[in-house]
């Protein structure tokens, strides 16, 4: 369905942890292992699993001793629900436990999506920093050429000053990008449960390819795999079990008792008792319990349909964004960027030969920087759209 393949370049000669490479899969595994929210949800899910065993057992028996002047009595009493009630209650508890597991799975996939978005934001900032640094180098060349031309009266002083202004602007922009990068690193550290200012190993840029199934097949994958839909399916089944349990309230429960009396003359007398509850108050008790459970089952069915519609809409929107940004990436890679680079080279050569106006050269340089910014953004948005689609179909890695 979705293939997101990464070709990672391995660093050679790296000796320290800060110089080592950190892949996306490494980040995801660290979040699964170290994120405090996931740790808390795992513990809650484990606790819910222990709770299911409580309902499999009969109520605790009661042992009683009675004394009088001429008699002592010992008795054991055991209450026994109607046989189907125990299995129904256990099944309901098991579904609740499965819901807690699915809540954990849903949150895990959401955090993986956040990691991927942060990873894409980090690479976007790095790409823009690289484009800005390259532009600074080029502007320094323009500044040097303008100074040389000014010295021989082939350029105005304004051209030299404008070159300086543009150079200062880009240097300030580079510092702003570095600040944004430090914030993104800090956010990644919070996801990894690390110190905010701790250095991250060098993140590597993935080379990804996108291959998707038809939209109808993606819908089916979402219905089958999305943890939120599976959770609400469990809620629907639990509500149906609750309705069954409410109807079983019309059935009697049993009480068994064995007692033994010891008289003063050492005579013993054993007694046996079987009791049956009589649900005689059903017009105002059991009937309302069934009505309540039936209403809750209808509510659960409606909620499932609502969540299904929302999930399928997420799939549709994510698939549309994948297609949109795939086209944008191809356009910038194959057309816009090569043309912008060619235009700048041509303008620079013409400026050196006094055949191109200085303002045209600056516009060509700005166009190339903006094209590189837009290309980096399109790549990041495509990466995020793929992550969104993977989450929508319940296949985050």
- CATH architecture annotation: Up-down Bundle
Which class do the helix and strand fractions yield? alpha+beta
Write the CATH homologous superfamily.
Outer membrane efflux proteins (OEP)
What's the overall geometry? elongated
The chain-level mean pLDDT equals 84
Q: List unreliable stretches of 5+ residues.
A: 1-19
How many helices in DSSP terms? 8
| CA-atom Rg in angstroms | 36 Å
CA distance, first residue to last residue:
13 Å
The number of E-state strands comes to 6
Sketch the major β-sheet: 4 strands, antiparallel
Kindly identify the CATH topology: Outer membrane efflux proteins (OEP)
Q: Specify the CATH class.
A: Mainly Alpha
Adjacency order of strands in the biggest sheet:
2-3-5-6
Residue share in helix: 55-70%
What is the strand content? Answer: 5-15%
Number of domains: 1
Structure summarized in a few sentences:
The chain is an alpha+beta fold. It has one domain: Outer membrane efflux proteins (OEP) (Up-down Bundle), CATH 1.20.1600. The chain has helices at 24-34, 36-51, 83-151, 157-191, 215-225, 227-247, 286-352, 358-392, and strands at 21-22, 62-67, 71-80, 202-203, 254-263, 268-276.
Can you give a write-up of this model?
- β5 and β6 form a beta hairpin.
- By secondary structure, this protein is of the alpha+beta class.
- The protein has a single domain, classed as Outer membrane efflux proteins (OEP).
- Strands 2-3-5-6 form a 4-stranded antiparallel sheet, with no helix packed on it. The chain has a two-stranded parallel ribbon with strand order 1-4.
- It is built from 8 helices and 6 strands, in the order βααββααβααββαα.
- The N terminus is likely disordered.
């Amino acid at each position: 369905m979705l293939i997101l393949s990464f070709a990672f370049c391995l660093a050679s000669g790296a000796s320290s942890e800060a110089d080592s490479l950190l892949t996306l899969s490494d980040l995801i595994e660290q979040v699964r292992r170290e994120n405090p929210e996931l740790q808390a949800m795992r513990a809650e899910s484990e606790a819910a699993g222990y709770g299911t065993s409580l309902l499999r057992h009969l109520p605790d028996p009661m042992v009683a001793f009675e004394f009088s002047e001429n008699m002592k009595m010992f008795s054991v009493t055991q209450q026994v629900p109607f046989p189907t009630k125990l299995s129904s209650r256990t099944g309901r508890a098991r579904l609740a436990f499965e819901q807690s597991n699915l809540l954990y799975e849903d949150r895990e996939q959401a955090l993986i999506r956040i990691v991927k978005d942060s990873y894409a934001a980090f690479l976007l900032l790095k790409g823009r920093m690289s484009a800005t640094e390259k532009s600074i180098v080029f502007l320094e060349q323009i500044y040097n050429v303008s100074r040389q031309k000014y010295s021989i009266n082939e350029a105005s002083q304004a051209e030299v000053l404008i070159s300086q202004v543009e150079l200062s602007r880009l240097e300030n922009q580079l510092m702003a990008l570095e600040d944004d990068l430090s914030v993104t690193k800090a956010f990644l550290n919070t996801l990894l449960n690390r110190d905010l200012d701790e250095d991250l190993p060098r993140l590597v840029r993935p080379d990804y390819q996108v291959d998707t199934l038809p939209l109808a097949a993606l819908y089916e994958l979402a219905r089958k795999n999305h943890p939120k839909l599976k959770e609400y399916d469990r809620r629907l089944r639990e509500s149906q079990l609750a309705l069954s349990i409410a109807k079983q309230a019309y059935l009697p429960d049993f009480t068994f008792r064995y007692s033994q009396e010891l008289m003063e003359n050492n005579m013993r007398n054993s007694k046996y008792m079987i009791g049956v509850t009589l649900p005689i108050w059903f017009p105002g008790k059991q009937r309302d319990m069934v009505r309540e459970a039936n209403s809750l089952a209808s509510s659960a069915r409606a909620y499932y349909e609502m969540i299904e519609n929302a999930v399928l809409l997420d799939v549709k929107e994510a698939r549309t964004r994948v297609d949109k940004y795939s086209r944008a990436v191809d356009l910038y890679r194959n057309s816009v960027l090569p043309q912008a680079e060619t235009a700048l080279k041509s303008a620079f050569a013409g400026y050196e030969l006094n055949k191109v106006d200085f303002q045209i050269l600056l516009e060509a340089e700005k166009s190339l920087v903006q094209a590189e910014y837009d290309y980096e953004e399109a790549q990041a948005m495509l990466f995020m759209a793929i992550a969104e689609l993977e989450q929508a179909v319940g296949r985050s890695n």
